[in-house]
């Protein structure tokens, strides 16, 4: 692998490490706690299904991004996942203490919300490329590879 390929791998791993292995492992080891958190938004069995879907996304999509296998589609799914989790679970507008001096749950959630949107933007760069020309390639062949390592 060339030095450019190694750099690409490092950058891609930097984007996905939060999900695979970190968040996926946390959901696995603390499954009951993850389901309890999901049930705050999705009651009953839907909370469990949400966590199982999240586990699938957090394991399979990063592997696609790292290996270059349908990486544009995997990155698009990760972008949607990040945006959805920001809106569903980082609801900074609810606590009502955003402008309170000192500690604020709302501001903490706000920074997490922005982090999720920033990650979504990073994943969209994989989907469309830095110059945006990859959008045509993605639309023409959504399950194709961007060949990130020069292959």
Write structural notes for this entry.
InterPro entries: DoxX. The chain crosses the membrane at residues 6-25, 45-67, 73-93, 113-135. It is a multi-pass membrane protein. It holds the Pfam family DoxX. With 151 residues, the protein is mainly alpha-helical. The protein has one domain (3-140). It contains seven helices and no strands. It has helices spanning 3-16, 18-29, 31-38, 45-67, 71-89, 105-128, 134-140. The N and C termini lie close together (10 Å).
Q: Averaging pLDDT over every residue, what do you get?
A: 94
Find the structural class using helix and strand composition: mainly alpha
Low-confidence stretches: none
Instruction: Give the tally of structural domains.
Output: 1
Largest sheet: none
**Any idea what the radius of gyration is?**
17 Å
Note the quaternary state here.
single chain
The N- to C-terminal Cα distance equals 10 Å
Transmembrane segments: 6-25, 45-67, 73-93, 113-135
Keywords: Membrane, Transmembrane, Transmembrane helix
Protein name: Putative oxidoreductase
GO cellular component, one term: membrane
Features:
single chain, about 150 residues, mainly alpha, 7 helices, about 0% strand, globular
Helix-strand layout with pairing:
Layout: H1 3-16, H2 18-29, H3 31-38, H4 45-67, H5 71-89, H6 105-128, H7 134-140
Compact overview of the structure:
This is Putative oxidoreductase. It is found in: Membrane. The chain has helices at 3-16, 18-29, 31-38, 45-67, 71-89, 105-128, 134-140.
